[in-house]
C-alpha cells in the first residue's frame, strides 16, 4: 500500500502546480509555502529520488556575490502525482499559499 503524501508535501506539490511553467528554488518554495527549509529540502530530495521532480544547478558568474541556486521543476510523472495528491484539497491548499502564482 502506498502512503498518502503528508500535508507539507501536498503544499509543495500545490506550489509547483500553481506555477507549472517555471522552475523554482528551495528558499522560494519555503517562502511560498511557509514551511521551514529543514522541511522543504528533505521533501525535494525525496521527490527527486522518486523521479517526481528534476533539478539543475544555476550557472553563476565567478564575480557574483550570490550563491548559486538549485532549481526544481515537476517531471511529467510528478505533475500527475501532484494532481492526484492535491485534487481533494486543492482550494484549501491554495488558501495556505496565497499569491504564489502571481
If you had to describe this structure to a student in words, what would you say it looks like?
The protein is mostly helical. It has one domain: Winged helix-like DNA-binding domain superfamily/Winged helix DNA-binding domain (Arc Repressor Mutant, subunit A). It is built from five helices and three strands; from the N terminus they run αβααββαα. The protein has helices at 7-18, 26-33, 37-49, 76-86, 90-96, and strands at 24-25, 53-57, 70-74. The protein starts with 6 loop residues before the first helix and ends in a 6-residue tail after the last helix.
Short description:
The protein is mainly alpha-helical. Helices cover 50% and strands 12% of the residues.
Amino acid at each position: 500500500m502506498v502512503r498518502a503524501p503528508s500535508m507539507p508535501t501536498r503544499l509543495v506539490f500545490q506550489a509547483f502546480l500553481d506555477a507549472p511553467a517555471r522552475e523554482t528554488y528551495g528558499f522560494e518554495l519555503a517562502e511560498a509555502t511557509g514551511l521551514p527549509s529543514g522541511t522543504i529540502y528533505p521533501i525535494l530530495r525525496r521527490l527527486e529520488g522518486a523521479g517526481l521532480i528534476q533539478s539543475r544547478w544555476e550557472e553563476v558568474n565567478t564575480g557574483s556575490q550570490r550563491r548559486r541556486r538549485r532549481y526544481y521543476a515537476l517531471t511529467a510523472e510528478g505533475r500527475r502525482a501532484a494532481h492526484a495528491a492535491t485534487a481533494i484539497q486543492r482550494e484549501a491548499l491554495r488558501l495556505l499559499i496565497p499569491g504564489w502564482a502571481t
